[in-house]
């Protein structure tokens, strides 16, 4: 049985013209240290994103108070059983810090630090099982606005924003913040 389907044309993957130009005149060891600008069919390729989280006790909260003075903030939480990840950022996502903490031991202290930022904070959480219920209650009692992000939408968006098909807790927090920024979350109304 033989099919007569046409083969798709190969996609051209190349380096940018500036990179190629410099590569022709540089020594090999210097060439490898230059920043490479990949293009796919002449369109710039997406850059990989680094998801390095800081533990809540290692964060300089005084510096964050100065950094985020007078800004509305988003606290995008990836809900898990024990280890939580959240991205604290301004609403434009131009300044952010990825935070990691243990839900049972460190949530109360984290909420206290967030309250001391003296900013309008919107907490965005996945609607994942019951793990986030107690934490959501604590955020609501602290006076934060709560938004709900669909777990399916987070899963479906795993490759959209950075071009990498992986999904882990730190990346999920980053994706939740982007979904909020794009208007793809909704206010969380308690039943």
Strand content: 15-25%
Tell me the major beta sheet. Answer: 7 strands, mixed
Uncertain ranges: 23-34
Helices and strands: which structural class? alpha/beta
Coarse shape: globular
Summarize model confidence as the mean pLDDT: 80
Which percent bin holds the helix content? 25-40%
Element string (H = helix, E = strand): EHHEEEHEEEHEHEHHE
How large is the radius of gyration? 21 Å
Please report the total strand number as a whole number: 10
Helix count, DSSP H or I runs of 4 or more residues: 7
The strand line-up of the biggest sheet is 4-7-6-5-8-9-10
- Termini gap: 59 Å
Description:
With 191 residues, this protein is an alpha/beta fold. The chain contains 7 helices and 10 strands. Strands 4-7-6-5-8-9-10 form a 7-stranded mixed beta sheet. Strands 1-2-3 form a 3-stranded antiparallel beta sheet. β2 (38-40) and β3 form a beta hairpin. The longest helix is centred in the middle third of the chain and has 13 residues, at 103-115. The radius of gyration is 21 Å and the shape is globular.
Please give a quick description of this structure.
This protein has 191 residues and is α/β, with parallel strands linked by helices.
What is the topological layout?
Elements lengths: L12 E3 L1 H9 L2 H4 L6 E3 L2 E2 L9 E2 L5 H7 L5 E6 L4 E8 L5 E7 H13 L5 E6 L6 H9 L3 E5 L1 H6 L12 H13 L4 E2 L4
Parallel strand pairs: 4-7, 5-8, 8-9
Antiparallel strand pairs: 1-2, 2-3, 5-6, 6-7, 9-10
Features:
191 residues; alpha/beta; 10 strands; 23% strand
């Amino acid at each position: 049985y033989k099919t007569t389907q046409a083969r798709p044309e190969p996609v051209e993957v190349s380096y940018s013209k500036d990179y190629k130009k410099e590569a022709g005149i540089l020594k090999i060891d210097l060439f490898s240290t230059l920043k490479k600008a990949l293009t796919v069919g002449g369109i710039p390729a997406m850059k990989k994103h680094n998801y390095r989280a800081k533990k809540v006790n290692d964060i300089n909260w005084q510096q964050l108070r100065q950094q985020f003075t007078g800004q509305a903030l988003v606290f995008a939480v990836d809900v898990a059983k024990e280890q939580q990840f959240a991205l604290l950022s301004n609403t434009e996502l131009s300044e952010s810090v990825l935070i990691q903490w243990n839900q049972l031991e460190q949530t109360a202290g984290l909420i206290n630090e967030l309250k001391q930022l003296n900013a309008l904070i919107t907490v965005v959480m996945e609607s994942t099982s019951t793990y986030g219920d107690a934490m959501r209650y604590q955020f609501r009692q602290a006076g934060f606005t709560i938004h709900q992000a669909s777990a399916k939408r987070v899963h479906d968006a795993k490759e959209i924003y950075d071009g990498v098909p992986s999904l882990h807790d730190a990346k999920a927090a980053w994706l939740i913040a982007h979904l909020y920024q794009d208007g793809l979350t909704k206010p969380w109304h308690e039943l």
